[in-house]
Amino acid sequence: MRLLTHNMLSSNIKGVTNGFPLRIEVEKVVEKQVDFNPNFLKNMFSKIDYKALLEASRIMGYAELPDHADPSSLESDDFLRRFHHALLQLHLEEGSLVCPETGRKFPVNKGIPNMLLHEDEV
Amino acid sequence: MMPYRIAQIRLVSSHPEVYEPCDDSFALVDALLADRTNLLEHRPRICLEIGCGSGYVIASLALLLGGEDSGSYFIATDINPHAVSVTSETLNAHGVHAELVNTDIASGLEGRLMGLVDVMVVNPPYVPTPDEEVGCDGITSAWAGGENGRSVIDKILPVADKLLSDKGWLYMVTLTANDPCDICLDMKKKGYAARIVLQRSTEEESLHIIKFWRDPNSQLEANDAKLLTKTDHGAGFGSFLSQLSQMSFWRSGNSTNN
Ligand SMILES: C[S@@+](CC[C@H](N)C(=O)[O-])C[C@H]1O[C@@H](n2cnc3c(N)ncnc32)[C@H](O)[C@@H]1O
């Protein structure tokens, strides 16, 4: 699971009002090479919750994203490359996503998050 | 035109509890191929499949768009945990990537992915069955569609409306028993126009692959049709009018580039 996907996931448990971002617990991170696509990154920037990405990338062991970023950051190739790496190249292979409100853990196995709910959570 | 590839059956992984590519899967991929020129021009950023099963469809979509190198990113969901693993193997075997989520429809993604999906593909469980069979574990959930086969479809449509971007397209497999006209009318009320991209009859079933896209006129027309049929008490005329509005609705679908 990429951090792009993590940035798009929220806790879906019934009654939870603030289910984003899910806290990441890491067991295994892998990196996979992806083509650098500045257009996509520029388009996506406004849709990404940067703070959530920043925290997630640090938990995943990548400390190279700047603390703050705004649309003007996109003019820097250096920033775009870091943003690219954090968003698309880091994968959570094994671990969990923890609901910030209830502490419920959603397991991630072989890179696939399991967001299925138990009957009493729907 | 660029040469293209779709998924190869011999590279599609399998599992006893995962739906194998079948006539409906092939029809959906053929519809995507038939619409390939439009899809390439559309330059979708995010593509989503709901109910990916073996991964045959999402792998084909990724291949025919040229994979991530072309600037499109792919996400697929399935409620069946075996299906997402099998899809992962199928994608690897074809050298393409999609992000996978084991979830009910798009639960967990609906909030943040809202309005971001440019292309959505769905081959839902559409076979009419008793309602109890819907969402059962394992392979039954691959086809069990409840009354008129509409249980899961009717849950997917509002989610699609939420996730699709302004320029978003939805391709969906339907069976005659699902009442495709009624599905289109439902989508028309949500502001979508529709076109049948491919129709195919097999020994057992008649399949339509329908493409939906946002069209502000559709909603207006749908509301007009409702008003007209409401004020007119002769049932015969009312249904005639609604047929008429449906016809113009199909036509408007063909007149654009979609
Ligand atoms: C007809 S099969 C299609 C599989 C594959 N897309 C294909 O075309 O070969 C329907 C798939 O939808 C999945 N499914 C059924 N209900 C679902 C739900 N509520 N949410 C997500 N997936 C679901 C099933 O597990 C199955 O894999």
TrEMBL record, chain A:
The residue stretches assigned to a coiled coil in this entry are: none
Q: Which Pfam families match?
A: Trm112p
What InterPro entries would the database entry show?
Answer: Trm112, Trm112-like
Q: Which SUPFAM superfamilies match?
A: Trm112p-like
- The domain of life for this entry's organism is Eukaryota
Gene3D superfamilies for this protein: 2.20.25.10
Signal sequence residues: none
**Subunit architecture:** Interacts with TRM9.
Which family is annotated? Belongs to the TRM112 family.
What protein name is recorded for this chain?
Uncharacterized protein
**Species this chain originates from:** Cinchona calisaya
Ranked from the top, the taxonomy reads: Eukaryota, Viridiplantae, Streptophyta, Embryophyta, Tracheophyta
TrEMBL record, chain B:
Q: Note the coiled coil stretches, chain numbering.
A: none
UniProt cross-references to Gene3D superfamilies, sorted A to Z: Vaccinia Virus protein VP39
Q: Membrane-spanning regions, if any?
A: none
Biological processes annotated in GO:
methylation
Q: Which PROSITE patterns match?
A: N6_MTASE
**What family does this belong to?**
Belongs to the eukaryotic/archaeal PrmC-related family.
Q: What is the recorded name of this protein?
A: Methyltransferase small domain-containing protein
Question: What organism, scientifically named, is this protein from?
Answer: Cinchona calisaya
